[in-house]
Design goal:
There is one protein chain. The chain has 102 residues and is mainly α. It contains four helices and no strands. The two termini are 20 Å apart. The relative contact order is 0.16.
């Protein structure tokens, strides 16, 4: 799982990231690792994927409506990203031999 965590760590807000440690780590280090990844905060934002262009709107109300649609879509994508990270951490936790040893 280490390469996957390294790729995802590039998108975090906090520069001090926890990566997969040694197989003989203490339970505290293992718990710190999982707590960090369960509380993962990403800097990714998806405005570059906006389908509606705000500048093409003819009036203020139309721009507001386009902004609202784009914001909803960004929030949906952010939620999908966080669900993906959470599923990765859940899968890792279930397979982690360090957890099974404790």
């Amino acid at each position: 799982f280490d390469p996957v965590f390294k790729r995802n760590a590039q998108c975090q807000l906090i520069s001090n990231h926890h990566l997969w440690e040694k197989p003989k780590d203490s339970i505290d280090k293992v718990n710190d690792f999982y707590n960090f990844w369960y509380d993962f905060k990403s800097w990714r934002e998806y405005s570059y994927l906006d389908e509606e262009e705000r500048d093409k709107a003819e009036c203020k109300d139309e721009r507001r409506y386009i902004d609202k649609l784009n914001k909803q879509e960004r929030n949906r994508r952010k939620k999908e990203e966080m669900t993906r990270i959470r599923q990765l951490v859940d899968n890792c936790y279930a397979c982690d031999p360090r957890i099974k040893a404790f």
